[in-house]
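Dear support,

Our group has been running a series of protein-ligand predictions, and this particular one with calcium ion is the one our PI (initials K.S.) wants archived with full inputs and outputs. We had some confusion internally about which version of the output was final, so please treat the block below as the authoritative record. The input we submitted was:
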Amino acid sequence: MGKMFYLVFGPLLITISFIEANPEQRDYVYYPKTGGWLKLHLDRATWRDARLTCAQEGAVLASPENDALEQAIRNLMSKSKTMKVNTGVHDTFATGHYYSIEGTPLSSMAVSVQEEPLNASRTENCLYLTQDDTEMTRGSCLDALLFVCFTRKTPTAVDCGTDDKGYKYESRTKRCYKFHIEPKNWSEAFATCSDENSHLAVINSEVESRVFQEMYAKVNASLDEPLYEVIFVGFTDLGDHKTWMTIHGQTLKDAGFNLWHPGQPENQDTLCGAMYGVDGLLDDYFCQKTCAFICEADPRNPVTNTDNKRELTLNMV
Ligand SMILES: [Ca+2]
Ligand SMILES: [Ca+2]
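Confirmed final output from the archive:
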């Protein structure tokens, strides 16, 4: 029976362990103070199933082990108008001895539990967190509730905040970009990025200028017909051919990059912002003419400056 079992189910077991090793963490939100990512599951589950679901995602059923975790859980609850969630705190091992999934005793947690008489059948082995109460409440582990998973692990991919696979994370600037080859005028380029839940790229540093220069060179090398020499980026002239502002209302200097290509700006009928592909320096270009452009997105779970290990991992994605 054992051998037969393996022959039939062996491949399945391998598949399952593969999934566990590669948690799908796209929906996780990074909370810096917790040192990890949290996700509110909007499907109700019993405590057992909730614990299993989190484990399959490489996470644990979240508990308010400290202030940061409690605030993060409550933040997810209030954002989704969730009144009550199950937590990982339970006493299923020994009645009255409450621990989190990770083994932290209730006594050392930031939040206490409501003192109330235990029910006769003593089935309230799980602790719930509710929006209206500062304390946790006892409840049945068999009730199906919403729940939150928590993981300190690095997500398998940075969430660029868009489903568009064309966006790639750039660790040097900690931003996501998509290079659009199809030429569009400046306004169409702006609208295209906006439709993709991003914005026309704004150059905020010499590093970012170099990143765009490299993107231009790489795309250009892959094409049979070379790109035009400039691409649109996110700044315009307010109309006097002197006052250049980014699409976020900053002067170029305040935005962090105001180096012009030699001979630019030319101050004619050229009111839209562009960048020379060859050197990453600024140009003024005709708004109605068409050229390639870059869209820029703010990742939802950016890496922190202090966490070099995490950043190294992300560089390999
Ligand atoms: Ca930028
Ligand atoms: Ca020009």
